[in-house]
Design brief:
Elements: H1 15-23, E1 30-32, H2 43-46, H3 50-53, E2 56-60, H4 67-76, E3 82-84, E4 101-104, H5 111-119, E5 123-126, E6 131-137, E7 141-142, E8 146-148, E9 152-161, E10 168-174, E11 180-189, E12 191-199, E13 204-212, E14 217-220, E15 223-226
Parallel strand pairs: 1-2, 2-3, 8-15
Antiparallel strand pairs: 4-5, 5-14, 6-7, 6-9, 9-12, 10-11, 10-13, 13-14, 13-15
Length: 227
């Protein structure tokens, strides 16, 4: 839970009760935490609850389970969630435990703009602390956008890394059912970008995954679309 000044009830054995508390919480943002840590930790297969969708919009990719497949499960069920990563620190080793990070695109480095980025799902998860990934539609609509009335999308994607020793091999665009909708070859570049044009039919989504030569990956927030 983020951006709440009060604690939720200490015991809520049914996650539906948590959803009702979330819906009643003005300004709150929530995150699916540690999906798949336990085989049953999927919130009843990511059962969709429409009233909570606008507030439950982060998805932790750093859980102990198969978060890649679970991310698709949540998206396919209708949740509008964007990927994030954290170190889950239980000791004073913030920033040094590993190189996994959540990335957000902000207009300014302050609490108001962070809330705006989290609320509107302008996030990416990364296993490289110096790398970033951005997905745009029509060079105007940020990843995290929910679009309607579109028949095609021109998607621009850009992956960058501040370390000259790090290189990208490819960027893939994924849609429903883990279908690969397009690929940008990076050829070992430190900065990689490209544009992919896609026809749009029916409700769906598209997001990017960038892969580095050392195997590290970055995952962008989706862009959702409806006819």
């Amino acid at each position: 839970m983020f951006f709440t000044n009060t604690l939720f009830p200490a015991v809520q054995l049914d996650f539906h009760d948590f959803y009702q508390s979330l819906i009643a919480c003005s300004g709150c943002i929530a995150q699916f935490n540690h999906p798949g840590d336990d085989p049953t930790q999927t919130w009843n297969g990511f059962e969709y609850v429409a009233g909570a969708d606008d507030k439950l919009n982060q998805f932790e990719m750093s859980g102990g389970g198969d978060t890649w497949n679970l991310f698709f499960m949540a998206l396919d069920k209708g949740w509008h969630v964007s990927p994030v990563y954290n170190q889950d620190n239980h000791s004073a080793d913030w920033g040094t435990k590993d190189d996994g990070r959540s990335g957000y695109f902000l207009k300014a480095l302050n609490r108001v703009e962070l809330y705006d980025a989290m609320k509107n799902r302008r996030s990416f998860s990364t296993l490289d602390k110096n790398a970033s990934l951005r997905l745009m539609a029509q060079d105007l609509c940020w990843m995290g956008s929910i679009l309607s009335g579109v028949q095609s999308l021109d998607l621009s994607v850009e992956a960058t890394d501040a370390d000259s020793s790090d290189a990208f091999t490819q960027i893939e665009l994924f849609g429903k059912g883990q279908q690969v909708l397009g690929t940008v070859s990076c050829g070992g570049k430190q900065n990689c970008s490209g544009t992919v044009s896609l026809p749009v039919s029916g409700p769906g989504f598209v997001f990017a995954r960038a892969t580095q030569a050392d195997g590290n990956t970055l995952v962008s927030a989706p862009i959702w679309f409806a006819p």
